[in-house]
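Problem: given the chain below (431 residues), write out its structure.
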Amino acid sequence: MDYLRLRHGKLARWVRGGISRWLAGPNAWPLVFRAPSAQTDFPHGVSSNLYVHLPFCKQLCPHCPYNRVLMRSDLVNAYGRALEREVAGYLRRPGVPTIRTLYFGGGTPSQTPKLIEQVVTMVRSKLAFAAEIGVEVHPADASSALLARLREAGVNRISLGVESLRDDLLRKLARRYDPQSALEAIRAARSVAFSCVDVNLIIGMPGQRAEDSATDAERCLALGADQVSAYPLFHFAHSSFGRNGRVQDSGERERLRALKAVSRVCRAAGLQRTSVWSFTRTGLSPYSTVTHEDYVGFGAGAGSKVGGVFWFNTFSVPEYAGSMVVHPALVMQAGERLRRAHWLYWAIYGTHIEASRYQALFGRSLKRDFGLLLTGLRAAGLARSDAAGWTITETGAIWVHRVQSLFSLSHIDNLWQHCRNHPWPREVVLV
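Solution.
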């Protein structure tokens, strides 16, 4: 059964609704995002975790689902001014805490280093000592000069979108580098002494074997990568691959073989699983953008979550760039049970569920609220319990991939597609 391709069917909707009502209450389904009706409805939450979306690319890769546009100097300049207004407005909010993490995603953030420097300069006085500052870097951009510039600005972590070390697969993805250049990017990053170098790999591409994925991971680790993140080739409806149906992936069985193969390689190298996708060297916090309990996002299409409030900016880069007062396009207020279920979902995604953290956040017992589910996961061999809480097993991590296909990937597909078509939607209902 291919869960990626079944996620928009009636059965998948029925399963999503049933599980959501069971875990988060009868009013938790469907999820409804609405446009704020007045300025008084704008969220004003603050967080120690920030995300900045820089959407500009030299070319648009056909598999990429993220909010991005082609580089245009006038649009970049206007975007920078809007971004400055948004960040400045945030810093004026009462109670802005010390910033512990600041991540830049895209798009191709390494194409606009000036915008990275601009934001870091604006928030510098609020940065914690040893704050994590991470940037996604395209391997073709990873020159010694650019990497040194980022490091000088304060960036201490980077994520390289290597994707594959096979020439034919890189061409299929329209990536503008060859395998040797990708490996040189890792070497260059190590020479600049970033505290964490994450490497993204794509698995499940047509013609790609599990052994290819394992070899890619081995070669990246041999050059000193601190984290390997292996993602299946997704078919989002709004991406070129998904919209045109031009590319079929390798299928569920081969995807699972690849995931297991990458896991074996990373664990043999001493890395620990830090999410269903990622393996990180012991002692390092994982490179992670918006999987924190709370975060605030800036830029076109950026999402935020503080407490039980979720919101998104307009996905339209021109609309965002032209906004004199940047404000959310969509807002959703989650009920308390949905907040707790959402926390559990992402804790499972991170493969470690800390009972004490749940107690501290919600003043409730994790076992009392979700004991039946967790006991079922343990009985099925998908999780194991210990003194700290629960850990998702290797088999469990495989099933989290499948659950993601039914939940977050389906929601992302529907929400992002709607927001790309409607810069200021009145309402988006996720079922």
